[in-house]
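#onboarding

Welcome to the new folks! Below is a worked example of what a typical request in this channel looks like: someone posts a single protein sequence, and someone else replies with the predicted structure as tokens. Don't worry about understanding the tokens yet, we'll cover that in week two.

Example request:
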Amino acid sequence: MSIGGSDPALTAPIPIQPGRTSTRDIVAIFRVRNFKLLVTSIFFASIALWMTRIAVDWLVLELTGNLALVGLAVTLQFGPTLLLGAFAGVVADRFSRRAIVLLMQSVVFCGGATLAVLAILGAVELWHVYLVAAVSGVAGALEGPARSALIGQIVDAPRLRTAMSLNASAFHIGGLIGPAVSGILIGVVGSGWSIGAAALATLVSILAFSLFRSRDLSPVVRPAEGAGGVRVALRYIRSKPTILWPMVLIAFVATFGMTLPVLFTAAAGDRGFDTGSAGYGLYTSLAAVGAVAGAIASARRRSVRLRSIALLTGAYGVAILLAGVVPVYGVFLAGIVALGVLRLLFAIGAESMVQLSTNPSVRGRVMAIYLVLLMGGQAAGGVIIGWVAEVLGMTVAFVVAGGMPLLAAIVVAIILARRHQLTISVNLSDFRRVVRIVKRPRQPKSLSVPSQSSDSSTDSAP
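Example response:
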């Protein structure tokens, strides 16, 4: 496997489909049996994830009345991704990804079902909750890279981003349903029954995966023993701009811009718009609605470019800034919907470019590092933005959360523009394309300066 990046074709714009995605294309991809089962599995797994998260947090609060201990439960669910994420990628590249997902989902089901029974019988203790949270966190850390890399074995490259957009739609629709159902069950019958219902949703996800046809999956060339693990993936990432720069941007967006729960909590508090829990629920729902719209819109885009990912990063940062700085409640609500749309357009574009630019034999390890940046950034960012909101207030928290991704987008855009001799062209006569990024005009060569040969390894325009 070559790690070099001298071939300009490796960093050229990535064609996703010959034209814009139509309804017929979407219907056609759903005729692929394994893809249909994958979307079903992700939908129910998302419902289970959100139901469990809400119910477990509430259960810890019922047992202890201590918000710090609730935070510990969250840490136990996400911490294993930071510790095991890179190793999980090596596992995903060496073993059957379908088998890994099935096994880890089964572990999550057993843990959730056990915790539900204990809670319903009134025999649950705090250490039970923490143990199940930790085990589920480990299972999720091992499952994530395998599930992400599996998509590339189900559909061909031209339809990969469309497939990921539809998967994202299923995930976020589940994210709308899960918290609502969990809240109703907790209020009516208790958190134990909500955890039990989440376990049943996980069982449906397992059933969908068990019906996969392994013979329909594209084969993956497994790395040979001693071929290298995480270091090989890191060298591979550094060698390809279409992987490196999206990962740089996702690190900034995840750490600062994906701290929406903290930002929404600050906005709903007495130092924000003082809307309480009802407002927090409204903000979360509006963001999810925007996310579904963004996922659907992403499925209809023609191509993915580095410049578009940088621009989306900047737009996302600006939307966060406007939502927090403009002291008008209606603008804030509209900004939340825009955040959902832009976040999904960016996230799907970045993940698509990383997946499509990665050799299948190393894709599991590369996606593992991607997920570590994504999950680790959110874990660290929650603490950072939470501290800023507590000490400096809601407005400053929004400024930091939006300003850092915007700054990263500007820096990356400047680097790309200088590397590929790009500039901004403004044409007020064409309202459809007022601002465009174009090649900078070549300067005439000076007769007094000897001409120099160009570097044949220069990347093509992003």
